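Continuing the batch. This is chain 6 of the set; chains 1 through 5 are on the previous pages. Same settings as before, nothing changed between runs. Recording input and output for traceability.
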Amino acid sequence: MAGKLGGSDEEAIVDINITPFVDIVLVVLIIFMVTATYIVQKDAIKVELPDAATGESTETTSLGLTLTEGGELYLDGADITEDGLREFIRTEKRRIKVEGGDLICLIAADKTVPHGDVIALIDLIRQEGVAKFALNIEGAELPPEAAGAVGAPVGGGTTDAP
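Output for chain 6:
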């Protein structure tokens, strides 16, 4: 019979038990997932982005610029100088002019980077003719007083209620 449960003592067991195989595959998958996240984090550029509640996401980015706490400048994860960045922007503008579209920069600066350094980077890309750029931020919650468009005092001052 094809559907008997017990089987007799005289017949050999010819069914394949795949339970140990599935267990081994799941363990290997877990090991792969854990090591993959470690490998990605090891090579990442460490930047602590400032928080802002009113940020918007961007769809496409042609250039990803990162300014670290130590003042290093990275273009799409690779170390670059200001002169190298100028040359790269000029090359990309020529390529985009042929293909059509606009050159967009996404600037990620550590929150400890001086404001003047970020402005200098923005000025550099604008000097090269890049009109569209965005500042990368971490998302944050809006405070309750900002959600209803209530006029909250600026600078921590107080208001006198009548």
